[in-house]
Amino acid sequence: MAEADIFSHIETAFPGTIQEQHSSHGNDTIVIDRGDLLTVLSQLKEHPDFAFNLLLDITGVDFFGKEPRFEVVYHLHSLTHNHRLRVKVRLTEESAELPSAASVWKSANWLEREVWDMFGITFTDHPDLRRILMYEEFRGHPLCKDYPVNKRQPLVEERDPITNPWHKG
Amino acid sequence: MAEAAAPLLPTQQEVAEHDPTSEIMELQMGPSHPATHGTIKFNLTLDGEKILNCDVEIGYLHRGFEKMCEQRTWNHCIPYTDRLNYASPLINNVAFAITAEQLLDVEVPERCQYIRVIMSEISRITDHLTCLGMAATEAGAISVGFYLMESRETLYDLVTAVTGARLTVSYARVGGVTHDLPHNFAARVRTAFADMRRILSDCDKLLSKNRIFIDRMSGVGTISPEDAISYSLTGPLLRATGVPYDVRKAQPYSGYDRFDFDIPTGTQGDNYDRFSVRFEEIRQSMRIIEQALDGIPSGPIRIDDPQITLPEKKQVYGNIEGLMNHFKLVIEGVKIPPGEAFQSVEGANGELGFYLVSDGSGRPYRVRVRPPCFFGMAALGEMLRGCLISDIITTFGMVNMIGGECDR
Fold this sequence. Notes:
Low-confidence stretches of chain B: none
Oligomer: heterodimer
Largest sheet of chain B: 3 strands, antiparallel
Distance between the termini of chain B: 62 Å
Strand content of chain A: 25-35%
Structural class of chain B: mainly alpha
Order of helices and strands of chain B: HEEEHHHHHEEHHHHHHHHEEEHHH
Shape of chain B: globular
Strand order of the largest sheet of chain A: 1-2-5-4-3
Structural class of chain A: alpha/beta
């Protein structure tokens, strides 16, 4: 599907939801509101014209000092049509939360855990939102721009893995 | 009183009634388990030896790759990418360079593209040989492990001849590669491949129809194509389920559309298919390398643009403009215009993607890696449900988690 096509298809499929659209460096991008996120994502996956069945990546970007501060970026690929799309949601620091896509793609579960771990962005209705790369006692979210690169962490009490396994939450 | 006098040993009847396999047991395996090559923890829920649930805990090798990259210039990130998937560092180098070049809107010379293809494919072979050799060793076929490691060593000799290092190669640069291939490289590759074809055929005979090996691998760690797609699996894991998705064919980069090669697929999505797919991919990679060596054009190996690539050493030591150019590029870095790009390559374990955001300074604003084995680990619990503890070893070996890449 050509570039112009995909935007016009999206335009007809989701009238009024696309805040911004552009195509740069070969990547088509749409920016949507977080309220529309789940409907748009599941439509993009299910609709035969799009069929974005492979969720490549979910990640965050911290534009510290700008407003809105966070961007959550979804990269989608369609195995049927062999096209790609980037979906972005912008979030302010005060309400850094958005609905979880774990019900649409199973891989979203771990990806969202990582975004939460690294940026402190919460995902509502996530089945199991806990840290994934860092440990439970870690303070702060390391990929935020206001987390100093040389910051030290406090010593952690030894945890008995039998009586207090942290994976039980 | 009667209770205190009760015998210490259970009675015959108690033994008969008590079935230890009916108990649900929790077992924590790892993080440093001798049978798993990689630091990872499995929180298992077991019914006897059957796995009811497997919760995978990763992050033990997290070094803050993405945070570190934000502190360095673009080219300083290249050595860090070596340490992502250290079984195939050249692919990571190339992936990062390609994405940065996409942000710059430049294309590297044709010879550089060929060199990148050749070195990526050699890396893919070394990665697959590591994975298959280790998996065979863990399943008991230790001689296969030795043969494949020996074969890998001949390839590491080639990598050393080109880059000067076995693992920490740092070979690619934004806008090219560091240096050209050595003069007798094609002949050395052909000799190494003749040797490797013999070893591969030996190992094929030792394993492919080996009853013990098939029993350990076949029907174990199965995942359906639908689940594989939903878990975002790519690479050999997805192709083993029968989905012929390969980034080199679907979204060609670095001139992969010039070469003729097949995408091997499986049918069952089990460990045996993953093994076979990887085995066949080694042969396909050799095909690509041979075509590339036949067709490689002469010419420059990097972009001729003083804003992007370093000047010749003769210029640096010979005149002030060259010296200044070198100084500015090393200290301030390549100035990449503001923007964002996502580009992926076919890594050895699946789709390796880089999402780079630039703010126009000499340093990346955000570097994100899409690590292929992260998704394999997320799906591991699903693959292992209903399997036995011993199946963890073969399945984990076939997912081929590389800690440096999964945990970054």
